[in-house]
Each structure stands twice: as structure tokens, then as C-alpha cells.
Design a protein that fits this description.
alpha/beta, four-stranded parallel beta sheet, Rossmann fold, six-stranded parallel beta sheet, 2 domains, 15% strand, 352 residues
Length: 352
């Protein structure tokens, strides 16, 4: 979301800079933008040196507006924006569960900090209302700006078989796919268990897992995923593709897109799949149920209900016309509700 926003801002008006706390090496996609990038390591639980470094970046680069994504970024940016400089501070939050996870002491501190913050953004009406209620914010300070995707990057595949062949698949395979980093919250094992069962009936079924694990991540699930695939002899039918920069083309090789998370904000991966014209299947949890309209562009299933997930996927596997119907609706909704142009325009207006 940040990359898309930085890339699409009007650079005749805005000169974007990006700072971050974790993983020293910047993502290649950000490096390719040719903008100033700042790694500000946060190593302590309350790291005052991080606040001072951010304050210096704001001062040295004459930053006018800071858009802090997530509560921690907002709290650490506050010192540099409001105490050491005269920069505007806009806080964007991406899910209700992240707000609810804020500890009591930080929630008390947050009420004070957000009183002096210039604007607060939720990526949906629900997230905005949660922010407003949790921190007792006035209506005028809160905004809802849905995440957007560049629909122009995600065109519908005119020849899906060609893309399947390009990625080493058989043109007659039915391909399920998920784009999500290998973390426990994304609940890949639930999808894998259901896939194992479906494979007994549909031997041409393939599953693409697109996303990476991170070494030392306590919430990482890559080890569990690899163990499950190996123990169930699924190596020939489940492809672990890691982090990819060619997601728009990979999605064109997929027939059905799945997201089986425990919780989400407003998932970019689902919106990208919609823009490609894919039918969706997801768990009926926050974020996902805001994007999937049951029986219009996909199916919602109960969390960890393997029978329900199996039934939903089976219907889409067996009825190509249903895949086509849901996919057409997905693409229409992506353009109507989640086009990046609308998201960028709203942020630009707020920054100005």
C-alpha cells in the first residue's frame, strides 16, 4: 500500500521519503523508485534514539507531512513532528484487531498523542469507527480511505493456459492460489489440509503458495508448511514460490484465489485477485468479509471448517461457469470500490 501510494503521488507537488524500523535492506521495489530511503533501527522496547533519529530526518529533509502507518510508527513519529519540528502528522491504521491489541498504557498515551495529531485514517469505515471510539476522537479528525490497487497492472488473462505453461503447470490443471507471507495468522495449514482432501477427488489440482517466511520470525509458519507438504507427499502438487515481483502474471495462471487468515485489515492480495477477475474463497473474518460478497464474487467459510472450505472450493472446481460469473463480478467491484486512483486522490487531498 505504501509503495503504491508513493509511486502514484503527484511528484510535481509531493517529494516522498520513506523510513522504516525493521529489516535493514530496503525492498527492491522501493529502491527502484529512486526516492530517499531511511532505515531507522528500533532495538529497545522504548527506544528514544529511534525517536531522535526520526526527528533529525524530518528536520534535515524539511518534511512537511508524515503519514505514519500503524500505531507504533505514529507514537515514534510524534516527537519529531510535534515537539522538535512543525510537521503535520497523519496516522493510518489497517485493522480493528491491531487497535484492540494496543496495551492499556499505550491506549491512554494514545488519547493524548492523537489529540495533537492532525488526522487519523482507517482503511475502512469499521477501522475508522474503531479508532474514533477507542481514542474518543472528534468526527472531524477521522477519515476512512480504503486501500486501493493499480487495476491497470492486473488485467484479465485472455489465455490462461499460456500462463500456466509459462509457470511449469499443465494447461488443464485447476490451480488454487494464495498470496500471503508465511505467517501463522495467514493459516496456510487450514488450506493445505483441505487441499489434501480435495486432491483425492481432483488429481489435476495444484496449489500455489506465493509469499515468503522470515528467519527468526516467532510468528513464522514456513517450517510447519514445509513439514506438512513433505509428510503428506504433496511436493508435486503444492508449489512454494516465495516472494515474487511477478504477482500480476502469476495471478493469471490461477483459477481460484483463497485467503484463509485468522484476521485481516483490508487485504491487498484479495483486491489484486479481484482486479485479475478471479473468484474468491476466504474465511469470514474481519477484512476478508468486507471484500467477498457471498455468492456474488466468491464464498465465505467459517474459520477452520474444513468441510465448508472443501464444499466451496469443490463447487468452483466443478463449475467453470460459476468461476466466470464470480470473476466478472470481482473485477467490476475492484474498479468500482478499490481503484488506486481514488485512494491516492483522497490521500493527496488530506496531505494538502
Amino acid at each position: 500500500m505504501v509503495w503504491d501510494l508513493v509511486r502514484n503521488l503527484d511528484h510535481n507537488i509531493f517529494k516522498p521519503h520513506v523510513a522504516w524500523f525493521y529489516e535493514e535492506k530496503p525492498l527492491k521495489e522501493f529502491s527502484d523508485l529512486g526516492i530517499p530511503l531511511f532505515f531507522v533501527p528500533k532495538v529497545k522496547r522504548l527506544d528514544l534514539s529511534t525517536m531522535r533519529q526520526l526527528a533529525k530526518i524530518i528536520q534535515d529533509n524539511q518534511i512537511d507531512v508524515v503519514n505514519a502507518h500503524h500505531f507504533l510508527s505514529m507514537a515514534y513519529s510524534f516527537y519529531g513532528c510535534k515537539i522538535m519540528n512543525k510537521a503535520r502528522l497523519i496516522y493510518t491504521e489497517h485493522s480493528e484487531w491491531e487497535i484492540q491489541a494496543i496495551s492499556r498504557k499505550w491506549r491512554i498515551a494514545g488519547k493524548i498523542l492523537l489529540h495533537f495529531t492532525d488526522a487519523v485514517v482507517g482503511i475502512s469505515d469499521e477501522v475508522r469507527d474503531c479508532l474514533k471510539d477507542s481514542f474518543h476522537l472528534p468526527e472531524r479528525k477521522t477519515h476512512a480511505i480504503p486501500n486501493g490497487v493499480d487495476c491497470n497492472l492486473f488485467s484479465v488473462a485472455q489465455d490462461k493456459k499460456r500462463y500456466k505453461i509459462e509457470y511449469g503447470l499443465d494447461p488443464d490443471d485447476i490451480v488454487l492460489g494464495i498470496v500471503a507471507n508465511l505467517k501463522k495468522n495467514k493459516n496456510h495449514i487450514f488450506l493445505l489440509k483441505t487441499f489434501r482432501s480435495l486432491r483425492k477427488k481432483h488429481n489435476r489440482l495444484k496449489l500455489l503458495l506465493i509469499g515468503q517466511g522470515f528467519e527468526g520470525d516467532l510468528e513464522g509458519s514456513e517450517g510447519d508448511i514445509r513439514s506438512f507438504i513433505s509428510s503428506e507427499n504433496l511436493e508435486d502438487s503444492v508449489l512454494l514460490l516465495g516472494a515474487r515481483s511477478d504477482v500480476p502474471d502469476l495471478l493469471k495462471a490461477i483459477d481460484i484465489f483463497c485467503l484463509t487468515s485468522y484476521k485481516e485489515g483490508l487485504p491487498i492480495s484479495l483486491i489484486e485477485a479481484m482486479a485479475v477477475g478471479l473468484p474468491l474463497v476466504g474465511t469470514a473474518v474481519e477484512g476478508i468479509k468486507d471484500v467477498i460478497i457471498p455468492h456474488e464474487n466468491g464464498f465465505l467459510v467459517k474459520l477452520n471448517d474444513e468441510e465448508q472450505l472443501k464444499h466451496a472450493l469443490n463447487r468452483l472446481i466443478e463449475y467453470p461457469s460459476l468461476r466466470q460469473k464470480f470473476g466478472t463480478k470481482s473485477r467490476k467491484l475492484a474498479y468500482q470500490s478499490y481503484a488506486l486512483e481514488n485512494c491516492t486522490k483522497q490521500y493527496q487531498a488530506l496531505f494538502l
